[in-house]
């Protein structure tokens, strides 16, 4: 799409805690228009940034997913030692959340390194806030930062971390290129460690990346700078290292079992335990990732379909907010509260219109099916867009999968097998 000289790009605060609708606009796809027969009003932008001459089309689902030239982005919310607030909150100093940053990157870039630099520069200038920034009297450090994995058709993949800067404003960010034969997992925690900023082909960061940590005493200039150790938020509880660590171990063990990694060491912010990435033992496919997303530690010591908590029908679902219990349930990869999951595929040997594919599943991954959405598509079947969670709709694929999940968990041992087949 081409834009006139001097045009401005509206930026919205559509953080996930806003509920439905996140925002209503006539400036984007039909999914953001006011619902027919409703009293929905157009959302007021949080602010504006200068528009560029032309932008790419892209698929959006809470965060930007994939654009028409195959640039692909996946997201993971992280914990950090800083917190920022949007401009529409008292004393809020920041314009951009990861939702909007990811969309802007897809609008403006065809390479992963362009996406990293674009998001980093805009966040430095306009400020970054975590999408869970709410109560300023109780800062939400546990969801105040973000990580993205960004891939392109040139077969480059970058890991991007970002948090709010000093005085609850601005941004601090770092990025590292993933090796061509490597597999990584970002399980709701920073994972980038030492930065070699003399190697700009593989490492990028904001100019203030280490200064704020030194000023706060979170890192020492006498030691190699460890980004995760410096900025990761770590309130220790006995089970905390396993919340992220078990998922990291499981993914690595699924693709590289030859490494025999320890499942119980956990992920520790201050001390590296698992590697940033591993080389898979065999070639991976999109199906490999779908299997990981559908996993609840089957056939391991931590299999959620086994034990007393699984009940007589071997149900792996575990729900939060249990009272008067010590410890925690395992945090599996496929969980009951999942709304959707995506596997993003780029194919440089094909034309853009069909080379990029977003494999999209609605609901619990273990109980769902992944559908291919081409990055060159301009429309989706209506059934994919009808997903009001407070109103059952038999014409909605999202509700179809929720309905299937509800039935499956009545006799999981018998019914779930039929779903997977």
From TrEMBL:
InterPro entries: Peptidase_C69 (IPR005322). GO terms for molecular function: cysteine-type exopeptidase activity; dipeptidase activity. It holds the Pfam family Peptidase_C69. GO terms for biological process: proteolysis. PANTHER family: LD30995P, SECERNIN. Belongs to the peptidase C69 family. Secernin subfamily. This is Peptidase. It comes from Aphanomyces astaci. The lineage of its organism: Eukaryota, Sar, Stramenopiles, Oomycota, Saprolegniomycetes.
